[in-house]
Design brief:
2 copies of one chain form a homodimer. By secondary structure, chain A is an alpha/beta fold. Chain A has 12 helices and 12 strands. In chain A, helix 4 runs parallel beside helix 5 and helix 6 runs antiparallel to helix 12.
Chain lengths: 340, 340
């Protein structure tokens, strides 16, 4: 029998939890023959939504749930020891499962990943690396960091580029990923002290395919494979993209629905709008990985439905299968030794 | 005879300069009976595009032009002394004209405003304050700072809010402008040290209608009248909005044009798309004002056509008419005295 990839699933995190998470886990089991899922959460609720029992699905009952609107994630992680997220994270740390997937609060998952799954010693700060769909056919862009660490230091930005580079090569199969540094202009000397220093670090690292600075106006243009950023600027850029897309498409929908002519036009353009929705709210991307911790930790969008969540589980499997964590640890340990 | 507002116009700055700038200036003269325009630039080229001579249009010949893709704006301002932008800025400083309008390179205009029109002594750093159209009917949002000063310090962010508040009240006639602080979350304690300190400064100032933190996903939602930001984050957020809107609408257009059904749908939705284009690329907003310098300095978009540029001249007139510069100077001088 071939190796099984054991994915730990926080069944209680997400706007549509546990129903969609449980269904998504079942879909994943059917889609990926080499995946085994352990569902962490309230057993009775999980059982209610599970289409059938399955030899590759286990349930670990947890009484507590960390809510989506948690104010102080680190505190919640420390206090809510019986929560599905904390119990699942500890199971990852103990090696009982190989990876963790959650659609719960982003801050809580980052805290759980950093404090419980634990940061790799070779990594200064873990970084969240969502895959952003772009308007360029079949091109996506990894943003790293999207907000796991809000401190803007040159060494963090450089490290974020390294983490994303290894992830892109290992998990996504991108041969020589093009890297841009998020900045307020494209000229070499743009930005503040930290950006200028990060630029130099990236430029001097001949193992990286560094193209120079990139502006946030190119976030969904598909010009590069990786946008390296401090978590503060990355978060601002990503949320601006998401909010603008949502607001513009909402406006378009309102206008279309307001007249008969509009409704007719909308019908004719249905397939067009569906294509654009996939850019704005992609199901198949499989969530964002938290890089720099001891196992793959995947954040599925809070609004995930079963299909989206299934792909997040597939993403976790791919990260385990390709051993991205060890590869990061080896590369960043070597880097640390040369710079110390 | 009533007072004339003397607007200095850099006729050579902009992607469509001088043709559209000169035509726009002529349109402004016809629209605003109390405006007098001085066009700075190459006299022969200006005359070629001017529909007719007019008693309220003067020309000041300047040999040189600062290009749109200028790498080092501050250096250009110092060296290109015969350029239209430098000569126009000096005319503002000398009081020969009351305000300056340019569609030239943003960095060059900020440098000219700061170094030649000169910063007000009461203001730490000038800030660029574009008016962002939103998806909410008749609601716009001022972003301050959009990138004049890329250093993120709490006192700068607080000052940016003050500048925008006075501008909103004085020039835009907004009674009690709602202010949000751009941040990576809506909770009070979000962000780094500077954001937390800026939050406290804003909260303690009872003259401001401060609503708390706002995320970049709300950039075009119209929730607040003013988004206060450091210039770095403001620039990142604004360009992400602009790029996303442009890329998504471009994709929509490509898809529509690719099939007959799409083209028919597109025709039926023409008025809808026109409405959305106005949100994305507004003609009537009148450009962005540089706040904190000794006279109104207006940046019209680089892609300005004559109509857009006419509104930028109207914006400059309104800023002079309502004496926003003196009001800023009085308020920030008082603030400086209480904090020193």
């Amino acid at each position: 029998m071939s190796k099984l990839f054991k994915i730990g699933v926080d069944a209680m995190g997400g706007d549509n939890a546990p129903a969609e998470m449980v269904k998504g886990a079942y879909m994943a089991i059917e889609k990926y023959a080499d995946v085994e899922v352990t569902l962490f959460g309230r057993e009775d609720e999980i059982k209610k939504h599970l289409p059938a029992t399955h030899e590759r699905i286990q349930i670990v009952h947890c009484d507590d749930v960390i809510p989506m609107d948690i104010g102080d994630p680190a505190m919640a992680i420390r206090r809510q020891k019986e929560s599905s997220l904390v119990v699942a994270s500890k199971a990852v740390k103990k090696g009982e499962v190989d990876a963790l997937v959650s659609a719960g609060a982003t801050g809580a998952l980052i805290a759980a990943g950093t404090l419980l799954v634990k940061r790799l010693k070779s990594v200064e700060r873990p970084a969240l690396a969502p895959i952003i769909p772009t308007v360029k056919k079949d091109a996506t862009t990894i943003l790293c960091d999207a907000g796991a660490n809000s401190e803007a230091k040159a060494s963090f930005i450089y490290q974020n580029a390294k983490l994303a580079d290894i992830y892109a090569k290992t998990v996504l199969g991108i041969q020589n990923p093009k890297i841009g540094l998020l900045n307020i202009g494209t000229e070499d000397a743009k930005g503040g002290v930290e950006q200028v220093e990060a630029f130099a670090l990236l430029k001097n690292d001949t193992s990286l395919n560094f193209l120079g600075n990139i502006e946030s106006k190119s976030m969904i243009s598909g010009e590069v494979d990786i946008i390296a950023a401090d978590g503060y600027a990355g978060n601002i850029a990503l949320k601006a993209v998401e909010g603008t897309a949502k607001d513009l498409l909402g406006l378009l929908k309102d206008e279309i629905m307001s007249t008969t002519k509009g409704k007719m036009g909308g019908l004719l353009l249905k397939s067009t709008f569906d294509g654009i929705k996939e850019v704005v709210n992609p199901k198949t991307v499989g969530g964002a990985i938290l890089l720099g911790v001891g196992a793959p930790v995947i954040k599925s969008p809070g609004s995930s439905d079963a299909e989206t969540f299934m792909y997040a589980i597939g993403h976790a499997k791919k990260a385990v299968e390709n051993d991205v964590v060890s590869k990061i640890d080896v590369a960043l340990t070597a880097l640390k030794e040369t710079t110390e």
